[in-house]
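Look over both lines:
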Amino acid sequence: MSARIAILAALALAGCTPQRTPAPAAPAPTGKALATACEGRDGWSDAAPPAKIFGNTYYVGTCGITALLIATPDGLVLIDGATAEAAPGILANIRALGFDPKNVRTLLASHEHLDHVGGLKALQDATGAAVLARHEAVATLTSGEPEAIDPQRGAIPPFAGVKVSRELKDGERLPIGDISLTIHATPGHTPGSTSWTWRACEAGDCRTIAYVDSLSAVSADDYRFSDHPDYVAMLRATFAKVPTLPCDLLITPHPSASNLFDRLAGEAPLVDASACKTYAEGAAKRLDDRLAKEAAAK
C-alpha cells in the first residue's frame, strides 16, 4: 500500500475523507480583518470583507447579517442574502475570494425576513441559481410578505419575492458534492425557520458546521406569545431539537448571536461542541422571561 493510499484510508476510518474542495484564486482575508472592519458597525447592509471560516466555508455577508458561501465540486452554495442593498457587496465578496458568482448553483435561506432574504432576488437574478426551501417558507419567499402567523408580521417590511425551484423536507440531504448538506426544520422565529449542517475539512481535520437559525422570540408590539400556545409549543420543540444537531462549529444569521467575529479573530474558541446547547438554552430563558413579563402586564 502506498503512503498516500494509507493516509486516505486512515482519514476515511476517522470520518475525515478529504473533500474535493475548489480553492479560491487568492488567500481569503482573515477573520481578524473582518472583525476589525466591522468594529462598531453592525448594520444589516454595512459592507464587510469576506473571510474564510473553515475548510470549504466562507463568510461573504455584512457586518450585521451572515451570508455563507460553501465551495463544492458541484458548484457554489450561498446561504442567506442579507438585504437588497447588500446584494452587490455579497457578489463582490464572492469575486474577491476568487470565485465566479455564476458558479453559485444553489441559494438557501435561514428564515424569511427582509434582513436575511431581501437580497435573494438580486442574487438569483445575478447568478441564475435555484432557490430551495421548506414548504413553510415558500409562500413568504415567493410573495415577500410575512405569514399571518409570523409574530413579527406588521413590524417588518416586505421584500422582493423569488422563484422557488423545489421544496425541501426536514432531514433531507442535498446531493451537492460530498458535504452532506442537511436541512433541519427549526420553526419559531418564523414559521419557515430552517437550520443547516454540513461537513467541512481542513488539513485532515473534519468538522460539522451548524448554521442554526435565529431562535429569538421577538414580535410586533401588539403580539403576545402567551395568546398563542401552539406557537410557543413550536418554539419549545425547536429549543429541544437544536442541542441534538451535529454541531462542532456554530454560526448564526446574526453573527453577534454566536460571537462569530471574535471567534474568527482568535479571541474565542472557533470550535465548541456545546455551542448549540448553550444557544438553545439562552433562547429558552429569554422566552420564559418574555412570557413572565406578559403575565405580569396582564
User: Anything to note?
Assistant: Residues 1-18 have pLDDT under 50 and may be disordered. The first helix runs from residue 3 to 13. The first strand starts at residue 51 and ends at 54.
